[in-house]
Structures are given as structure tokens and as C-alpha cells.
Amino acid sequence: MEPTIRSRLESDLKQAMRSGDTVSRDAIRYILAAVKNAEIDARGGSQPVDETSTLRKLGKQFADSLEQFRAAGRDDLANREAAQLAVLQRYLPEEMDDEELAATADAVVAETSATGPKDMGKVMPVLIARLAGRADGRRVSAAAKEALARAGS
Questions:
Q1: Separate counts of helices (H) and strands (E) for the chain
Q2: Does one domain contain both 105 and 79?
Q3: CATH code, domain with 20
Q4: CATH code for the domain in which residue 121 is found
Q5: CA 123, CA 141: separation in Å to the nearest integer?
Q6: Which of 4, 27, 129, 152 is buried most deeply by CB count within 10 Å?
Q7: What's the whole-model pTM score?
Q8: Residues 49 and 4: beta-carbon distance below 8 Å
Q9: Of 89, 117, 135, which residue sits at a domain end?
Q10: Structural domain that includes position 112
Q11: pLDDT band at residue 118 under the 50/70/90 scheme
Q12: pLDDT digits over 9-22, tens only?
């Protein structure tokens, strides 16, 4: 059985502490806190915590902060955010390439018998479930729109 993201984080935290890797240590502590908070928030609910979506949200926060720090000329903070984002990306599944994403979107459009852009609401839930966190939401939406446009023409 593959270890959970949380168990990998805990193991890697110990390793980073032993090796004196302060950048990884601090980033992993922050990421681990986000996962634990998501678990606390989900207590009492019927759905288990989706660690991957928690990490994707955190990655988006890091990317947004990075962009804002660069715009403000705060290279020191931007570098810290970039380092944390690099550590976070070790725990995310590999992103799907554009061709594979487009092919999956086309397949879902065909399966759902979607005929054009008006069927976006029918296609997106199926496509998101099929991709299981392997692509950013913006990319998924864009691929669905393109596939629906091709289906409508």
C-alpha cells in the first residue's frame, strides 16, 4: 500500500531535520499544518480529506503570494515562496500534459453526448472526477471549452 501524503510529509520532515535542510523543514512543517487543518475541518463530515486537493489549494496560495511579492519588488520573500512551492510540488501527482488532457476532454464530451458549450455543466464534473487532481482547474476548464467547441462545430 502506498503511504499517504501525510505520512510521507512526516517522514520527510524527520529527514530534513536530521540533515539540517531548513528550507525543506520549514516548508514541510507549513504543508503538514495545512493537511492537519484540513483533517480537523473535515471531522464529523462524511467525506475523508482529499490531501491532493488540499496541497493544490496551498500551491495556488504559494503561486499567488510569489506573484505579489515579485510585483512588490520583495525578492527575498518571493524566493522563500518559490522554495516552498518547489518542496510542495514533490508531493503532488505529476501534471497531465496538454495532449492527454485534450484527449480526455474529447472522450468525456463523447461519453456525455455533449453537443456544444451549453453542456459545460454536464462535462465538467465527469472530467474533474476522471482527472483526479492531475491538472489545474483552469486548464481543465479550458480543455473542456475547446472540446465542446469542437463538438459543436
A1: 7, 0
A2: no
A3: 1.10.1510.10
A4: 1.10.10.410
A5: 10
A6: 27
A7: 0.70
A8: no
A9: 89
A10: 98-152
A11: confident
A12: 999 999 999 999 99
